[in-house]
Amino acid sequence: MIGLKGTLNVIDNSGALLVECVNVLKQKVNNGWGSVGDEIVCVVKRARPISGQTSASAAKVRQGDVRRAVIVRTRKAVRRPDGRFIRFDDNAAVLLNNKREMLGTRIGGVVSADLRMKGWGKIVSLAPKVSGRVCPCMCSF
């Protein structure tokens, strides 16, 4: 569960390393708490330094930028329909632009399989590993 002032690692190659949640964008359920697959508004707290050789346009984000992101991992356990609980070691997110497209082109870590059911199939397809695969008929393999 991610709420106000919650910090998340960024696992794409957009240039951000750490973000802080300032708003959860979803329906009025869970009273402002976000889970895997929910969209949030966040502030970039730490970003990769921009070297002198790369142009300013090559750096996609800078420290202090306000961006949208989707939550891909949470430390809070999420219950699957078959009764299993899935929990990760950290909270992580992938940055988005205003059109709900990924800002980066690569993903550098494990993501939850629940993203596919919530409409984020592009993130699942780019991820090197998907944790706890779930097929549409609710059986796991």
Question: What do these coordinates show?
Answer:
The chain has two helices and nine strands, in the order E-E-E-E-E-E-E-E-H-H-E. By secondary structure, it is mainly β. A five-stranded mixed barrel has the order 1-2-3-4-7. A two-stranded antiparallel sheet has the order 5-6. The chain is globular. The two termini are 26 Å apart. The mean pLDDT is 87.
Mean pLDDT: 87
Low-pLDDT stretches are: none
Strand content: 25-35%
Series of H and E elements: EEEEEEEEHHE
Summed up, the helix count is 2
* Topology, number of strands: 9
Structure classification: mainly beta
**Morphology call:** globular
Spatial separation of the terminal alpha carbons: 26 Å
Note the main sheet: 5 strands, mixed, barrel
Overall helicity: under 10%
Which strand order does the major sheet show?
Answer: 1-2-3-4-7
Radius of gyration: 15 Å
Summarize the structure.
Helices cover 7% and strands 33% of the residues. It is built from 2 helices and 9 strands; from the N terminus they run ββββββββααβ. The chain has helices at residues 114-117, 121-126; strands at residues 7-10, 16-25, 39-47, 66-73, 78-79, 85-86, 92-96, 110-112, 129-131.
